[in-house]
Amino acid sequence: MGEWSFLSGLFDALQVHSPMLGRFWLLLMLVFRILILGTVAGDLFEDEQGEFACNTLQPGCKQVCYDDAFPISQYRFWVFHIVLISTPSLIFLMYAMHHHNKRTTRLSQPRFSQLSRNAAREERHLRQLYVINVAFRLVTEVGFLVGQWWLYGFRVEAQFPCSRFPCPYTVDCFVSRPMEKTVFLCFYFAVGVVSALSSFVELLYASLKWFRPTREQPEEQVCVCQNLRNLQQEEAE
């Protein structure tokens, strides 16, 4: 149960430090990518190389034709995508949890000098890191969408002609369950488009809301300082 409590803490940190669009992206990642990729796609692509058949018995021809048809396995391509796009988010969440624990420890101490200034600086630093994380996520999403389109297109053909060495002539190779793989290919591409749009809107929202100068900031700082002064007076009494 230790792993589940660790993940629960990460998700709590995400809810604190990200807007609603960030939680929507997390839902896309957990349900429509990790869950479906681990259940449906795992069974669909586990026999892709074993069931790839060519109408020749020439040794080595089947292997080179498979490499020509699928330079990178679709399943491994998507797994690498999930790992690459999730790693910065997990690093940010762990850093946010560490920052939150430090701030909680600092608030429990009896002294409040420079508390408001340090808290505002650290909060701004966290927001900057979060915006950088969303920007990296957006670039990665777009890059993998372009890579998927360039490598596989939007259709898995049932028949693949191949004439690479050591094939003695142009042979025909056949892919197992091409229709199911085509549907999953389009589905994963659509999820990637939705995720990229969500990251783009979240980047605009966070940049405009968090870093746009407003006239209310001095009043808020005065209120925070006044509250800290009141706490100090109560402690002295």
First-to-last CA distance:
46 Å
- Which structural class do the helices and strands define? mainly alpha
Taking the sheet with the most strands, its summary is: 3 strands, antiparallel
In spatial order, strands of the major sheet run 1-3-2
Tell me briefly what this model is.
This protein has 237 residues and is mainly α. The chain contains seven helices and three strands; from the N terminus they run ααβαααββαα. It has helices at 2-17, 20-45, 61-69, 74-107, 115-152, 178-211, 217-236; strands at residues 53-54, 159-162, 171-174.
Topology:
Layout (H helix, E strand, L loop, with lengths): L1 H16 L2 H26 L7 E2 L6 H9 L4 H34 L7 H38 L6 E4 L8 E4 L3 H34 L5 H20 L1
Helix pairs in contact: 1-4, 2-4, 2-6, 4-5, 5-6
Protein name: Gap junction protein
GO biological process, one term: cell-cell signaling
Keywords: Cell junction, Cell membrane, Gap junction, Membrane, Transmembrane, Transmembrane helix
